[in-house]
Amino acid sequence: MRRRRRFALTIRDGPRVQRHRFESLQPALDVLETEMRSLAQTGHRSTVDLRYRRFEPVQQVMARAELRGPDGLRAGLDLRGDGSAEAYTGRLTRDLVAERDGEDAFQALRRTLTEGAS
Questions:
Q1: Looking at the domain assignment, is residue 43 inside a domain?
Q2: Residue 60 CA neighbour count, 13 Å, CB half
Q3: Is residue 52 part of a domain?
Q4: DSSP states of 18-84 as a string?
Q5: CA distances (Å), 40 to each of 29, 43, 63, 104, in order?
Q6: Rounded to whole angstroms, how far apart are CA atoms 102 and 10?
Q7: For 64-85, how does the pLDDT look when each residue is reduced to its tens digit (9 = 90+)?
Q8: For burial by CB atoms within 10 Å, which of 28, 69, 106, 112 has the most?
């Protein structure tokens, strides 16, 4: 019996966690983009000023989407407190995905993962 190839998407927004499973990569990326773009429009974070350190909105992760798949695929996207987004691959050692001209983090992540799948 052959094992099914599955993709698992976890989206964390503060205490809220959503989990999704997909049979292929494209629907997983579609949901990741839709959910994270929606969260980006819901609001931004303000600066956190502690006695010993100050955290600007760009330093805060407001929401995180993590994608796992076959053959050890690990990738995701962090939504920052200022509304910016950063795509990465890997889990323990995260490598930022470089955006090309005209791309945003969502498009860069999609390009990186689909190029790797072909």
A1: yes
A2: 17
A3: yes
A4: EEEEESSHHHHHHHHHHHHHHHHHH--PPPEE-SS-EE-GGGSEEEEEEEEEGGGEEEEEEEETTS-
A5: 16, 6, 9, 13
A6: 27
A7: 999 999 988 999 999 888 888 8
A8: 28
Instruction: Give the domain range for residue 109.
Output: 7-117
74 within some domain: yes
pTM: 0.83
Number of domains comprising the chain: 1
Distance CA 103, CA 117 (A): 19
For residue 104, the surrounding DSSP H or E stretch is none
Parallel/antiparallel/unpaired status of strands 85-89 and 7-13: unpaired
Q: Does residue 106 form part of some domain?
A: yes
Adjacent-strand bridge partners of 8: 21, 68
Q: How is residue 105 written in tokens?
A: 């983090």
